[in-house]
Amino acid sequence: MTSLDGAAPARRLPLVRRLMLRDFRSYGALDLRIGGRLVVLCGENGAGKTNLLEALSLLGPGRGLRRAELSECARLDGAGGFTLSVEVEEDGETRRLGSAWSPAEAGGGERKHRIDGAPVASSRAFSDHVRIVWLTPAMDSLFAGPAGERRRFLDRFVLAIDPGHGARVNAFERALRGRNRLLEEDRRNAAWLDAVEREAAELGVAIAAARLECVSRLEALIAAERDDASPFPWARLALDGEVEALAASGPALDAEDRYRALLRDNRGRDAAAGRTLVGPHVGDLSVWHGPKDAPAATASTGEQKALLVGLALAHARLVADMSGIVPIALLDEIAAHFDPRRRAALFVALARLGGQTFVTGADPATFADLADRAEAFEVSAETGVRSRAQA
């Protein structure tokens, strides 16, 4: 496939060859060697399959596929923290990426990151070596659910191509909390409000611009590869919101000035509401079922699942185009939802991505057609993780 500008992209292909865990979720200790590109993790519900995907998802920026607090990832009867480490192979060379979290005496905790044993500031440094994308059953209600879920879904897409996006979102949320506190005061400090609104405007426009760029590029890629006959229907996307419209209409500095004016003019309304009512934190991602030209929320449950997979596959290709790194895909209990035709098409589409994919499922029959194409592991709460060839 060519990149969006027509040039053939040079792609890096990192592969996870070893996953090591200590006191992570249900795993006291694990040292799993991995040889395949398509990796099947099969086992009963509660066996620990999703825990393995979650560990891999923490190689990316953010809070992982469960969005859990790090304290929740520590094994209940463990030492109090956890460590995770992976060996990533690329072009015959191996890198070790690792994270460790330990509780702090005063609450919270401390997370440390290393690459080949050397400390790095954050997990954002891992993005130079791997990119991670995922789908989970929790996303099934995305199109009919609240706007906040779609914003988080889109932000995960943006993070995979712009690892700094999460820091901007967090800083913007802190700025809004500061503004809300100032608005609650009986005697408001205008100078402080001006300062915090200036920061919020700069961050808010940057967030909206990053989301808009991601949606625009994704739309272009989908249009270039559109196939009405595909079992995974193509989607039309749009980003809705006042600040999003400002960011799309002209230079960033002009958008920041106009958003700052909105914040200033709406201080009274926002004080009465107890929250800031205008900003990228209230925007929404609109999704349409392309072949039917209908809102995704009105599609059947099966159509929504297929549409979601189609979006995820397109996003994985976009990540490869923009970063030059073919992402590692994590699919939790996805294949079981589809009929045999769509399931077969999913495995073909995953192979075309060219990267490494981890899939989970409870029923081995779901993966029967992959017997000679996948490396399969049996996951059990009693016996741990074993190659199915040895189980």
Automatic annotation (TrEMBL):
Listed GO biological process terms: DNA replication; DNA synthesis involved in DNA repair; double-strand break repair; SOS response
Binding site residues for ATP: G43, E44, N45, G46, A47, G48, K49, T50
Gene3D superfamilies, per the entry: P-loop containing nucleotide triphosphate hydrolases, RecF/RecN/SMC, N-terminal domain
Gene: recF
Signal sequence interval, chain numbering: none
Protein name: DNA replication and repair protein RecF
Swiss-Prot/TrEMBL keywords: ATP-binding, Cytoplasm, DNA damage, DNA repair, DNA replication, DNA-binding, Nucleotide-binding, SOS response
Entry's localization field: Cytoplasm
